[in-house]
Design goal:
- The protein is mainly α.
- The protein folds into two domains: 157 residues, Cytochrome c-like domain (Cytochrome Bc1 Complex, Chain D, domain 2), CATH 1.10.760; 147 residues, Cytochrome c-like domain (Cytochrome Bc1 Complex, Chain D, domain 2, Orthogonal Bundle).
- It is built from twelve helices and two strands; from the N terminus they run H-H-H-H-H-H-H-H-E-H-E-H-H-H.
- Strands 1-2 form a two-stranded antiparallel sheet.
- Helix 2 packs across helix 6, helix 3 crosses helix 6 and helix 8 packs across helix 12.
């Protein structure tokens, strides 16, 4: 016969086992977005950044169960140490398949206002975020399977509740959460930013590079002619947000924006990417054909190829080239390196939560 002490212990264990477990609480606390001297961004009105939404998006960004064989996450091709891009020329998918374009940086997406991907085929970041999951060459999974896998995990069910007010997991909510996290990744603490704020000093070479970068091309006054980089890479985020053909080939090997719009003027045109952290994101161009910044500058200086949809401002320089000498090229590269944000690649807010 059991003594009273044993019976009491059994009763306590039974009570604990039957006690209602604490439930997650819907938390709509706004996420505190830091962006320094960058222009005030337009946050999507139907998907504001919240603490719990960003947290969920961060979990999903690093979640390998979003792929067909549970081996690959968004972060596999958008690595923090490389300013959230891939240093492979073409990223490799779960089945060893190779893509056709170089991975783009997932930084400062809030200042990306004109479509996503090199060709702009996704209008919203939430749409872009789930396309690689379903791409046969990338993560090769269905959203139905992703939802089913996440529904088996109590941690995710609770986090969806905290972010959205219910445990319902859907493709749409996955896209919203990923959008929130990527919109929280902001690069604004480079040497260039500190220079503008009076907290850093440029070397003579960096100052020369900055002058060349923003000075317009002028074939009539070679001594004062600039590299005119700001024509396409202007503004605080160093991108015009336009789609341009930059003369990589005489014969198109990638239709680019044309496949979205059907306009001949868009044939071969690609999204003008930000130059922030460009030092960390080789190789360069949509097909990763250039391994170094030196090669990129040489292309614009003397390597343009004419085609029917070549950007007019670039076509205008083909007669003389940009007339940059070795000193000019080195100065431009020195300036471009001031756009590197070392804080970004070490910021724990953007690192894997697992």
């Amino acid at each position: 016969m059991l003594n009273k002490g044993v019976l009491l212990g059994i009763a306590v264990l039974f009570f604990i086992g039957c006690a209602k477990k604490p439930q997650p609480v819907w938390d709509t606390s706004a996420y505190s977005l830091e962006y320094g001297s960058l222009p005030t961004p337009e946050v999507p009105g139907d998907n504001p950044l919240t603490e719990q939404g960003v947290k969920l998006g961060r979990m999903l960004f690093y979640e390998t169960r979003l792929s067909g064989d549970n081996s690959m996450a968004c972060a596999s091709c958008h690595k923090q140490e490389n300013a959230f891009t891939d240093t492979n020329r073409f990223s490799v998918g779960i089945d060893g398949s190779m893509g056709h374009r170089q991975a783009m940086s997932a930084v400062n997406m809030l200042w990306n206002t004109n479509g996503y991907f090199w060709d702009g085929r996704a209008q919203k970041l939430r749409d872009q975020s789930i396309i690689p999951i379903q791409d046969d060459l990338e993560m090769n999974e269905t959203m139905e399977n992703v939802v089913e896998k996440l529904e088996q995990d109590t941690l995710y069910k609770h986090q969806f509740f905290r972010a959205f007010g219910s445990e319902d997991i859907s493709s749409y909510r996955i896209g919203l959460a990923l959008e929130q996290f990527m919109n929280s990744i902001v690069s604004y603490r480079s040497k260039y930013d500190l220079f503008l704020e009076g907290e850093a000093t440029f070397t003579e070479e960096e100052e020369l590079g900055m002058e060349l970068f923003f000075e317009e091309y002028n074939p009539y006054f070679p001594q004062t002619s600039g590299a005119d980089c700001g024509h396409c890479h202007g503004g605080k985020n160093f991108s015009s947000q336009e789609y341009m053909n930059n003369g990589l080939d005489s014969i198109y090997n990638d239709n680019g924006r044309y496949d979205v719009t059907g306009l001949e003027s868009d044939r071969g045109a690609m999204k003008v990417t930000t130059l922030r952290n460009i030092e960390l994101t080789p190789p360069y161009m949509h097909d990763g054909r250039f391994n170094t910044l030196e090669e990129v500058i040489d292309h614009y200086n003397e390597g343009l190829r004419y085609n029917a949809s070549l950007d007019p401002a670039l076509a205008m320089t083909m007669g003389t080239g940009l007339m940059l000498n070795g000193t000019d090229k080195a100065a431009l590269i020195a300036f471009l390196r001031t756009l590197t944000d070392s804080n970004l690649i070490h910021d724990s807010r953007y690192a894997s939560p697992f």
